Amino acid sequence: MDVRVGDKLLMKKNHPCGENVFDVLRVGMDFRVRCVGCGREVMAPRSKIEKNIKKIMREE
């Protein structure tokens, strides 16, 4: 899956704050993403993030 820094990810499940859109801050073996709603940063394994992506939104 081609996910780049700066992309916005629409996830299948909501963050506890109610938002389901995340900004990608870091890509590698694990991802660092920031919730657009509350600003919380989360680091999670690549496999877990890729499994829960519904749509990748790019600004080109």
Keywords:
60 residues; mainly beta; 1 helix; globular
User: Please, how many helices?
Assistant: 1
Mean pLDDT: 93
Please give the oligomerization state of what you see: single chain
**Radius of gyration (Å):** 10 Å
Main sheet summary: 5 strands, antiparallel
SSE ordering:
EEEEHE
Instruction: Specify the overall morphology.
Output: globular
How much helicity do the residues have?
10-25%
- Sequence stretches where pLDDT stays below 50 over 5 or more residues: none
Number of E-state strands: 5
Which structural class is indicated by helix and strand composition? mainly beta
Strand percentage lies at 35-45%
Q: Alpha-carbon distance between the termini? A: 18 Å
Give the strand line-up of the largest sheet: 4-3-2-1-5
Number of domains: 1
Structural commentary:
The protein is mainly beta. The chain has one domain (8-57). It is 10% helix and 43% strand. The protein has one helix and five strands; from the N terminus they run E-E-E-E-H-E. Strands 4-3-2-1-5 form a five-stranded antiparallel β-sheet. A hairpin with a 3-residue loop joins strand 2 and strand 3.
Layout of strands and helices, then pairs:
Layout: E1 8-11, E2 21-26, E3 30-35, E4 41-45, H1 46-51, E5 53-57
Antiparallel strand pairs: 1-2, 1-5, 2-3, 3-4
